[in-house]
Design brief:
The radius of gyration is 18 Å and the shape is globular. The longest helix is centred in the middle third of the chain and has 19 residues. The chain has five helices and five strands, in the order αββαβββααα. By secondary structure, it is α+β, with helices and mostly antiparallel strands.
Length: 150
């Protein structure tokens, strides 16, 4: 007899938070911040907070995060709260909660100040694939000599 397959695939919460930031950035979300609330909250590990400029922009960000996580990682939110009309949508991935809101709503509720004791998570480095397309700096090339500036 086979074991039933879990509905939700497990993913490290930090990795999920970073992936949510990357997906929001794909749709040009603004001021994307990840707060590490593990030491401050028993409810979740990370908040990802991102802003959109309009209802269609918010929709694009929400769709990018939910669709790509579902299609590429088989991860679905446990709950979705808020609406595009209220200009604040919350995607609850249990260990990561994603807040996507219009700038004026974000300013009003000011989650970054409310959770001001939470450290911010820095962006991870670009993958090797994406860095291949960019010109590397002299720091990234082993045994290279610095170039003289004219």
């Amino acid at each position: 007899m086979s074991q039933p397959r879990p509905i939700f695939r497990q993913m490290d919460s930090r990795r999920l938070a970073l992936l949510c930031r990357e997906l929001a950035d794909n749709k040009k979300a603004e001021d994307i911040v990840i707060l590490d609330v593990r030491e401050l909250s028993s409810v979740t590990d990370y908040f990802v907070i991102a802003s959109g400029t309009s209802e269609p922009h918010l929709r694009a960000i929400v769709d990018e995060v939910t669709d790509k996580l579902r299609e590429q990682h088989q991860v679905r939110p446990k709950a979705i709260d808020g609406t595009l009309q209220t200009a604040w949508v919350v995607l609850d991935y249990f260990d990561v909660i994603v807040h996507i809101m219009r700038g004026d709503v974000r300013e009003r509720y000011d989650l970054e100040t409310l959770w001001g004791d939470a450290p911010r998570v820095k962006a991870r480095r670009k993958s090797k694939e994406s860095s291949k397309s960019q010109t590397p700096s002299s720091k990234e090339i082993p045994h290279s000599k610095p170039r003289a500036t004219p």
